[in-house]
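Protocol step 4 of 6.
Sequence for 23S rRNA (Guanosine2251-2'-O)-methyltransferase (Anaerospora hongkongensis) entered exactly as in the expression construct, tag removed. Do not edit the line below.
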Amino acid sequence: MSEEFVAGRNSVAEVLKSGRSINKILVAKGERHGAIREIIGQARSQGLVVQEVEPAKLDQITEGVRHQGVVAMVAPVAYAEIEDILGRAQENGEQPFIVLLDELEDPHNVGAILRTSDATGVHGVLLPKRRSSPLTATVAKTSAGAVEYVPVARIGNISQTLKKLKKQGLWVVGADMDGDKNYYEADLTGPIVVVVGSEGQGMGRLTKEECDFVVRIPMKGKITSLNASVACSLLLYEVLRQRELKDK
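Step 5 output, structure tokens:
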């Protein structure tokens, strides 16, 4: 697995120029030298998250590597574009099958979902840039190698992204406890985006409003929700089951 950070002013400036997939830029509080100001400007122009942290936090991340007050947290694999994901479905002669993770912050869940996505034929996974776990070494490890095979795209505004996908003919199905019907009663055979929210909060209100329909997973026990990666797995396998039945 490639390193998870690049440290130092020159190195970070170079990685910003290179087009490599960066999760976020960390800057030591109070650091405003010319070089750091340039890095912050460059990062913001690329739509990257820039976070101010205590210098001790940078020391902890870099473990002795000289960081000069700036560190780029980098992804272990390159991010894809949504167009690449849709193109992949087209190349395979399949209806697009996409997963969108709404504010899912646990890297173990994201890794597990990537693993199931690979197993069920998902063409790609969408991760919001904010309040979501980016691709990290932990995600890659939990995915058991799936991160190499399932394209992941980072998106800005979730509602706008869903609107665009709907215009391109995709249906948006969300999983939520107050869904209209059980997930196995819905028709999931068409071009589809499956939206899964975080364990604690579920889907955001605006995200839910963009869903064409919302399905629930029946729960018979005392606990009211499933782990997000388990809930997502059930939905993805149901999409696969319905598609295979339709193709027979």
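Step 6, annotate. The longest strand covers residues 22-28.
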